[in-house]
Amino acid sequence: MRATNPRVKSQAKRLRQQFEGVVWRFRTGGQWREMPREFGAWSMVHNRFRQWRDAGVFKVLLEGLIAESVKRGEVDLSLVSVDSTTVRAHHDAEPRRRRSYRNSEPHHGKQHVASLRALRVFRLDQAG
């Protein structure tokens, strides 16, 4: 029987806590600095998130979850919805621009904010 290395065990536990911290951040929409201490220092969790993001870990996880769900017949990818929002921003929120002789009025249009809020996948038999 092999003895488990306590150092490896503690690192695995720390990685799990950091992953749960990342999940907490995106589930609640809270700021990194608001993260409860149970996940570790917010700066460490944020740094780990950046490492995983840059390495493509989340893309691989999502693709694996989708593939597994399709294999089980739990999901039908023929109907996918992406949500976006348009909001009016205050004119002071725009970056300062110089006025040109062609355009004497500053532009105060709508700012389009598109976000992939949730990837909603429905089974066709439930959607219609």
Features:
mainly alpha, two-stranded antiparallel ribbon, disordered C terminus, 128 residues
β-strand amount = 5-15%
Spatial strand arrangement across the major sheet = 1-4
Which stretches are low in confidence, meaning pLDDT under 50 for 5 or more residues running? 107-128
Mean pLDDT: 75
Task: State the helical fraction.
Answer: 40-55%
Task: Report the span from N to C terminus.
Answer: 56 Å
Listing every helix as H and every strand as E from the N terminus to the C terminus, the arrangement reads HHHEEEEH
Count of extended strands: 4
Topology:
Blueprint (H helix, E strand, L loop, with lengths): L5 H23 L13 H14 L1 H16 L7 E2 L3 E3 L23 E3 L6 E2 L2 H4 L1
Antiparallel strand pairs: 1-4, 2-3
Helix pairs in contact: 1-2
Structure description:
This protein has 128 residues and is mainly alpha-helical. Helices cover 45% and strands 8% of the residues. Mean pLDDT is 75; it is low at 107-128. It contains four helices and four strands. Helix 1 crosses helix 2 (42-55).
Compact overview of the structure:
By secondary structure, the protein is mainly alpha-helical. It has helices at residues 6-28, 42-55, 57-72, 124-127; strands at 80-81, 85-87, 111-113, 120-121. Strands 1-4 form a two-stranded antiparallel ribbon.
